[in-house]
Structure formats: structure tokens, C-alpha cells
Amino acid sequence: MPDLTTMHLKCLLEKATPEPWVKDWDNQHVLFNPDTDRVVHVEYSDDARNIELIAAAPLLAQEVIRLREHIEGLITTMENKAGVSNGRDTLQELIVAENLMSAANQLRQILGDHDE
What we know:
The protein has helices at 6-15, 50-83, 91-111, and strands spanning 22-23, 30-33, 38-42. By secondary structure, it is mainly alpha-helical. It has one domain (6-111). The chain has a three-stranded antiparallel sheet, covered by helices on one side. A hairpin with a 6-residue loop joins strand 1 and strand 2 (30-33). The longest helix is centred in the middle third of the chain and has 34 residues, at 50-83. The chain starts with 5 loop residues before the first helix and ends in a 5-residue tail after the last helix.
């Protein structure tokens, strides 16, 4: 399985040909960057169905990174809200804090170890 850590995805995006990646109108097996005319990928199989997914790869990687960062921000906010106490917490406030921490832990499990 490929390395899908956030750091590795960022590294791959830095090294890759800048987007957009589009199909060549004359040859549906070729992806290129229209801004630079640089060929990004040539599909050598007779089946060019993979080309759309390959063309979307940079945007998909960016979206994965963005979602991970957003979820990390939500977790931090939830943990901070759960940790706020004035020393006179009501039972309801304690339950809310416990629920926030539970939800934050569930989000951490969903994210997994993506930064190792």
C-alpha cells in the first residue's frame, strides 16, 4: 500500500507537475498540463478509463490534506471546550465535556495514524 501520510502527500504534491492535469484531445491516453504543455502521464494500456482518476490525483491529495487539517482543528476545539472549567461545573456541563471528549476521541480514531 502506498504511503498516504500527510507529510508524504505534501511531498508528492511539491514534486509533481503542477495542476491542472487534462486529457489531450488528440490522444485520450495522455495527460498534460495545458499551462506548460508538459506531459504528466501516458496510459500505455488499451483501457484509458484510469486517466480520469489519475488526472484527479492532485486534487484528491489536496482534499485529503485539507480534511485532515480541518478535523484536527475540530478535535482541538472540542478538547479545549471540554477542558474549560470555572470550578463550579454543573452535571450538564460535565456531561457535555465528556461527550465532547468522546467525539474528539472518535474523530482521532477515524483519522488514524496519518502523520507517522
